[in-house]
Design a protein that fits this description.
Length: 137
C-alpha cells in the first residue's frame, strides 16, 4: 500500500509539472521586434482605431484588421496606402496615406497581430465576399 501511494504521488507530481510546463510555454508571446513596435506607433499616430478595430476593440466604422494579413498580401497593402482610396459611405474623404517606411512598419504590425490565436475572432460577416472583391484599380 505504501508503494502504491508513493507511486501515485510521483505520477501526480510529474503530471502536474508537465501540464505547468506546457501551459507556460503556450502563454509566451512572440518576440516583439522594432518594426512591429514602429507599426504600432503608426497605428496610434494616424488614429486607425478611430475607424478600425483590432481584436474587436476600437470603432466599428471600418473592418476589423486583426486577420487582415490572412486575407491580403503585403503588396496589396502597399498599393492601398499609396493609392489612398476614397472611404465609404460618402466617398468624399480619402484614406490616410503612409510613407514607404510607415507602410512596412504597419505591415509588420498587422503580421504580428495576425499570428495571435484569436479563437475564431473576428467572425465572418455577410459582407465578406464584397470586401474580398474590393480591388485597387
Amino acid at each position: 500500500m505504501k508503494y502504491l501511494i508513493t507511486f501515485l504521488v510521483v505520477v501526480t507530481l510529474v503530471s502536474f509539472s508537465y501540464i505547468t510546463y506546457v501551459t507556460v510555454n503556450n502563454l509566451k508571446t512572440p518576440d516583439l521586434n522594432k518594426r512591429y513596435l514602429a507599426g504600432k506607433k503608426v497605428w496610434h499616430k494616424n488614429g486607425c482605431v478611430d475607424c478600425h478595430t483590432i481584436f474587436g476593440n476600437g470603432a466599428y466604422l471600418a473592418s476589423d484588421l486583426t486577420k487582415t494579413m490572412s486575407n491580403r498580401n503585403a503588396e496589396w497593402i502597399k498599393k492601398f496606402f499609396k493609392k489612398r482610396p476614397a472611404m465609404p459611405p460618402n466617398r468624399t474623404k480619402r484614406h490616410p496615406g503612409l510613407s514607404e517606411g510607415e507602410t512596412k512598419d504597419m505591415i509588420a504590425f498587422l503580421r504580428f497581430v495576425n499570428k495571435i490565436d484569436t479563437n475564431g475572432w473576428p467572425p465572418k460577416t455577410l459582407l465578406e465576399p464584397k470586401l474580398r472583391d474590393y480591388n485597387l484599380k
